[in-house]
Amino acid sequence: MASSSASPTGRFVWYDLMTTDVPAAQAFYEKVVGWQGKDSGVPGKTYTIFSLGDEMLAGLMPIPDDARRSGVRPAWMGYIGVDDVDAWAARLQAAGGTVHRPGTDIPGVGRFAVVGDPQGAGFMLFHPLGRQDAPNDASDAPGRVGWRELRAADGPSAFTFYSTLFGWSASRAVDMGELGLYTVFGYDGQDRGGVMTRTPQTPAPSWLYYFNVDAIDAAADRVKGAGGQVATPPMQVPSGQWILAAHDPQGAEFALLAPRR
User: Fold this and answer.
1) What CATH number is given for 12-128 in this structure?
2) What is the pLDDT of residues 89-144, one digit of tens each?
3) Neighbour tally for 110: CB within 10 Å
4) 0.85 exceeded by the pTM?
5) How does 141-169 read in b/e, with b if 16+ C-beta sit within 10 Å?
6) Domain boundaries defined on the chain
């Protein structure tokens, strides 16, 4: 990941896409989201940085060989900042989570661990070297990650896990009828995402990340024109915004969020 991400505890600080075709994925997201991709320049490592102007926002890399052999498919992963990766990994494990890869150093960047919550949704813990600035995770500007959504096996108990571990607060709960409650969570006084019980169409508990775009219909056309698939057509949510869910050409799931149709 890039060395631009700070690590205030409990805050999403970075996002990585692991994929089977780095050049194709780079071209897809540049067209759909408007990012600019550039090789990180790290010797012996294939890692692309997605940026908007001078601001680094996300990373792109091949699926590691060991992960691919174990069946890992293309996917986006979010990093949650902590002040001590190993201590927080132990704390997560004691709370019922799983450590898939223990604390590992990224030379010159920081330390990370690959973990999962008690219901199986994966994410990363991260602590940087030195003081670094993170992308604004509450921004609604195009190209930023505007929302994070956990589709859990059981939404209420999943929220309890994260809120107890990271101090997230519930600002409100939206009744989704047969789908149960959608709990909106936040920190630093701002909403950052939601937690819900997954639908039958979601094969396993997982995090879904929403990228901001200007208008949802034009973005849907870009997804299809670049070889992706729109899995859930544009719909308006209670906030008045418009969303869709999609898969990129390699199969990674993501979502888009826009202020207008």
Assistant:
1) 3.10.180.10
2) 999 999 999 999 999 998 888 999 999 999 999 999 999 887 655 556 656 889 99
3) 23
4) yes
5) ebbbbbbbbbbbbebeebbbbbbebbebe
6) 12-128
